[in-house]
Amino acid sequence: MILVLNLSIKKSSTLVTKKEFSAVINRIIVSFLKGSNAVEVVATARALPADIAKSANDQGFDVATVAGDLHKDKAYLNRENIHSSKHTEQVIYHEHDY
Description:
Blueprint: H1 18-33, E1 39-42, H2 50-58, E2 68-71, E3 74-78, H3 85-95
Helix pairs in contact: 1-3
């Protein structure tokens, strides 16, 4: 079973910039996760693995609201639902249980 957590952050009309997003991810990968295969970024919920979408739906979540999920030891980040550098960190740390 995949556990989907919807970190409720007030949705804003702006996204974290690609530069900020990449900087946070790269810093965390180098410092804590020891490898770039621990995180995969997708542009939209439609690009998440089908198992994540099914699990979200089974748990009553709309997959379109998922910011991140851990699946097969990899944290998937849905960039369209991440709105700040802090939120990026929260999602990664939550998914990897740090």
